[in-house]
Structures are given as C-alpha cells and as structure tokens.
Amino acid sequence: MFTRIFGKPKQEANALTTLDKLNETLEMLEKKEKVLQKKAAAEVEKAKEFTKAKNKRAAIQCLKRKRLYEQQIEQLGNFQLRIHDQMILLEGAKATTETVDALRTGAAAMKAMQKATNIDDVDKTMDEINEQTENMKQIQEALATPIGAAADFDEDELEAELEELEGAELEEQLLQPATTAPAAPVQVPAGRLPVRAAPQRRTAEDDELAALQAEMAL
C-alpha cells in the first residue's frame, strides 16, 4: 500500500519531465524551420539577381539549393507532427492514470460505507454499488478510445487541397494585366518589306530555367 502511494508522485514527475522534453524539442525544431525558411527565401532573391544578370547557371544553382532547403523544412514539419502526436498520447495516458486513481479512491470509500451500513440497508447499498460499477465501465470504455488523430490524415486529400490552392494562385496571376509597354512600330522604307529575324532555338538549360522561374513565382 505504501509503495503504491509513494510511487504515484514519481510517475507523475516522469510524465511531466517527458512533456517538458518534448516541448523543448518542438521549440528547437520550430527554430530550425524558421532558419531554413529564411535561407530558402534568400536563395530565391539570389536567383532573381542572377537572372537579371543573365547568369543562368548561377540562378539554377540557387533554385536547386532552395529545393534542398524546402525538403529539409518538410522533414522538420513531419518531426513536429510526430512530437505533437506523442504529446497528445502522453497527456491522454496521464489523464487516464489520474482518473483510474480517482475511481479507485471512490471504490475504497464505497467499501468503507458498506462496512458501516446496517443489514437493512444492504440491498440499497448494493444497488448503488452496481450503478457505480456500471458507470465506471462506461468511463473506462470512453477512455479506451484511441488517441492520435494526426496519423489518420488523408494525404491524398491534402495533396488535392494544395493543388486547388496552386491552381487558384496561377489563375489569379494569369488574370493580372501585363505591365510591359507595347513595342514601338518599326519604320520601313517604301517598297521594302521588313526582314523577319530568325527564331532563336531554346536550349534545355533555357527550358529548365523557365520552369524553375515559374515555380519560384508561385
């Protein structure tokens, strides 16, 4: 009995210590995520500067580094989600333990009441005990409900929602009026037809840069 009594504070202390450790880890991951987001934004700005300077190779390298930072940011987000899930489970387990202890105390009080009850009140007392036992079973069944809804998120639904957001933003950009001024007409002497310039061939590097610039604009 004494071991059980003195063992409860230690268990509660361990649970609180674990929750504090999880909170510290969560704060550390959030700080790292902010740093990586700043680095990714800086790479985008560098890529824009290199693009203006016609340095395609350097701009592409900046965008590749941006993607690496984004992958790390996504990984940190997954870590944070797991920690949140673990904290929810631990807090639920702690609440369950405290609830069971409270119910155990109530059961002990009911036993003491039974001993002090007269023989004429036995039937009445037994009815009360049965009612309390049934309530306890219902509480235990409710507490047995699984916790951790984050693990049940549908990734396909999240991807579809993200595609809708990207499509809406792209449509908004396409609807914006062009800001470039129209080209001035070319004066051609009478009797002479303008010579059309031969179209320049796009290289694979130009296509890759254009695709990365479009992604950067999103």
From TrEMBL:
InterPro entries (UniProt xref): Snf7_fam (IPR005024)
KW Coiled coil (keyword) present: yes
Listed GO CC annotations: cytoplasmic side of plasma membrane; ESCRT III complex; multivesicular body
GO biological process: late endosome to vacuole transport via multivesicular body sorting pathway; vesicle budding from membrane
Disordered: region residues: 180-206
Coiled coil found in the keyword field: yes
UniProt biased composition (Low complexity): 180-190
Origin: domain of life: Eukaryota
Coiled-coil region: 12-46, 122-175
Gene3D superfamilies attached to this UniProt entry: 6.10.250.1710, ESAT-6-like
Keywords: Coiled coil
PANTHER family associated with the record: CHARGED MULTIVESICULAR BODY PROTEIN, VACUOLAR PROTEIN SORTING-ASSOCIATED PROTEIN 32 HOMOLOG 2-LIKE
UniProt-recorded name of the protein: Vacuolar protein sorting-associated protein
